[in-house]
Amino acid sequence: xxxxxxxxxxxxxxxxxxxxxxxxxxxxxxxxxxxxxxxxxxxxxxxxxxxxxxxxxxxxxxxxxxxxxxxxxxxxxxxxxxxxxxxxxxxxxxxxxxxxxxxxxxxxxxxxxxxxxxxxxxxxxxxxxxxxxxxxxxxxxxxxxxxxxxxxxxxxxxxxxxxxxxxxxxxxxxxxxxxxxxxxxxxxxxxxxxxxxxxxxxxxxxxxxxxxxxxxxxxxxxxxxxxxxxxxxxxxxxxxxxxxxxxxxxxxxxxxxxxxxxxxxxxxxxxxxxxxxxxxxxxxxxxxxxxxxxxxxxxxxxxxxxxxxxxxxxxxxxxxxxxxxxxxxxxxxxxxxxxxxxxxxxxxxxxxxxxxxxxxxxxxxxxxxxxxxxxxxxxxxxxxxxxxxxxxxxxxxxxxxxxxxxxxxxxxxxxxxxxxxxxxxxxxxxxxxxxxxxxxxxxxxxxxxxxxxxxxxxxxxxxxxxxxxxxxxxxxxxxxxxxxxxxxxxxxxxxxxxxxxxxxxxxxxxxxxxxxxxxxxxxxxxxxxxxxxxxxxxxxxxxxxxxxxxxxxxxxxxxxxxxxxxxxxxxxxxxxxxxxxxxxxxxxxxxxxxxxxxxxxxxxxxxxxxxxxxxxxxxxxxxxxxxxxxxxxxxxxxxxxx
Length: 642
What we know:
This protein has 21 helices and 21 strands. By secondary structure, the chain is an alpha/beta fold. Helix 6 (220-227) packs across helix 7 (232-242), helix 8 runs antiparallel to helix 9 and helix 20 (599-611) runs antiparallel to helix 21 (619-636).
């Protein structure tokens, strides 16, 4: 089937509008645990239409979410996730009278995946007929709706209105049958796991819309419920007699079959047999992959291939929407599946997926005021015979100066980096802040690196807000003894693996030991050895280098191993006057996406404060002035496009 046979207007800016369920999935973290025994859950965006909106967006389509969320915190979470994923929310309405839907899910492979829907009169079933904006649909190639939208009288009316409006505006119309018997009241309220119950009532709701469809996606059982027959062949014939839609039959680990109108022969593509962790959401991932091809005019074989591959990747991961692949991941799996028996643990694939979830580092600039220092302050307190409580007092004054700048410059990517030892109150006061927040994970002054939380690294990071970035100060040099290098790399690898597991952004502050060479050659070689150990930080926090030639060595190392890597430049306690020249050199590479300045801003005020020669109330304004000066220097250095 050529692309010219598809009713798609390529001039329309939106590829797909996804109408229907968007909810919060709470996935049990204990694999093989019955839901009643689960101890903790991971929170994700979910719901068939929501999953497909995210899945298609990750694959490069311009997708929009057409639904309704509560004004509760879970509704805000869904909006944030959709925005992060690049999904348009123009048609996502709020309701203050209904709660956002929740789903509890368990994972017990190979074949037990219990789930409980909490959807009583929920927000995403409150779509109104007038919400189907003709002007918006006129700019979309296709509308996708799900069968669940026909399960209540009001949503049935809204769905019929949306389909009618879409047809009038020249959109292709796609049905994902999405048959959940429990949502039709056909099973016990807690039985979300049952996938099929024969029902003439459901068939009667689906069949009147068949004539309006261009594409139908469903499992064998779902196609039979749409056809209203007990055999797949008869169901397909009923659909052919009623509709000119292409029918996509999802067959799990066997892949899929695609039936064109007027043809008895199916189109297929190779499956990707793979060890299953979680089948929930696999169908939505398949649909996302298939639609990436279908909406871009690819052959049906290619559509099926991309659908099969996307479904296969998703079943190996925890969760639905967060497990879905980018187009780069998808192509990597297809190209390397047969040649790499360990494809799922391939560092390249893992890195691609981490970047799919967290974004590309260079797209996340940071202009950091870093005052997570501890040993320097402690040593200074000893010299002045002062208690360490003065450190907490001073850091609070620094924070006051930072907040003034953050309030005056909300458009800048400002961030603070402070330790939980002397800055616990600052971290607490930064909850819900618009600026970014980071905290160190290393025990101050440790070498080899040790964790400030002891060995409870996973538990400690799990207890931190997920939006905080993790900073580790890490001493390394290519000329260190082999044993010391191995210890440092082992510790760093452990930290990175936990950050990947918890979806945390890791900032690696690479410090070259003072007794060894400090030039660009050493820095580039150290970076190379980190990558060779299969460790990929989100940001590198490294010292400024004095010449463009040295900086180019670092750039070349990053280009060889991670072209998307971001660099946050640290100030080395240098005088502020040196930064204009430094920044100009550093911004000659697109990797440089920010700075982290600390002692250059606050050390002189600290010395005056701890010696008693400066009143505390003078500190915030000095911090504000110095921080603003650095921000202006950075801006003046100019922006280098990536």
